[in-house]
C-alpha cells in the first residue's frame, strides 16, 4: 500500500495515508487490549524506536537475537497502522504494541485494562527539529517547507498526529486512569541509561542480572542501533524513505535544537510553551547536562 500523497483525517487529526486508513484508525480506537500487553506511547520523534528496543531487550533478558532478526515494526507494531492485525495474528506470547495516538482516542479501549503503558516524552524543541528533518527524507510525509513554517504548524497543532501539547498533557494528565502507567523522558534515558533500564525492568516485572543489564545497555546504544537494519529503517524502500536525504537515526542528542532555531524562534516558542503548559507540572531538560564521552557505553538514542 503506497498512498504516499494521501492524508487521512480522523477525529480532527491528520495522519499519513501511507500507513493509515479510516478503517485502521477506527480499529485502534476499539482495540481489544489484553492485560498482558505492553503499550509504548509517544508523540512522533520522541524516542519511540529506542523504547521499542529497550522493551524487546528487557523482555528477552538481554538476548539480542530478536532485536537483530525482527524489524521493530513487527516486534512492536503501531496499533493504528493498517498492517497491525496481520502482525498480531502471527505473533506469539505477550504483545508489545506501539501508538502515537492521543489519549482521548484510546481512553475507551484502555478502560478497565491492566495493560502496561509506557509513555515517553521528549523536550519539544528537539522533537520539532527531529520531526522536521524526518519530513525531508520520508516521502509519505508532506514537504515541510522552511523550518519557520513547520515550526508554526507544530505550535498550531496542525502537523500529522496533532498537537504535541495535547498529546503529552492528555496522557500524563490522565495517568491516574491507567492502572499500570510509567512516565519516562528521552532526556532521562540519555543521561542515565542504566537507571532507566532498571526502571523499565521493574515496571515490566522483569528483573535483570548484571550481565543481562550490561547486554541490554550495549545493544540499545546509539552506535549499535544505528548499524542494526532491524532498527534503522534501511529496510524501507528508497521510494518510501529516501535515505540519500538523511538518516532515520540522525544524531540522538539533547539540545540539538540550538543548531536550527533562531533566537527569535526560540523566544517565540518559549512564550507559546509557557502559555500552553501553564496547567501542567511537567518539566523538560532543554540542553545536555553532561557529556557522554567518558561513559563506557554511550547512552545515546535514536531520533
UniProtKB/TrEMBL annotation:
| Enzyme class, first EC level, given as a word | transferase
Q: Which GO terms describe its cellular component?
A: cytoplasm
Ranges where the Sulfotransferase domain occurs: 35-280
Give the UniProt keywords, A-Z.
Catecholamine metabolism, Cytoplasm, Transferase
Q: Which GO terms describe its molecular function?
A: sulfotransferase activity
One GO process term, biological-process aspect: catecholamine metabolic process
Q: Which family does it belong to?
A: Belongs to the sulfotransferase 1 family.
**What is the protein's given name?**
Sulfotransferase
Species in which this protein is naturally found: Hemibagrus wyckioides
Q: What is the lineage of its organism?
A: Eukaryota, Metazoa, Chordata, Craniata, Vertebrata
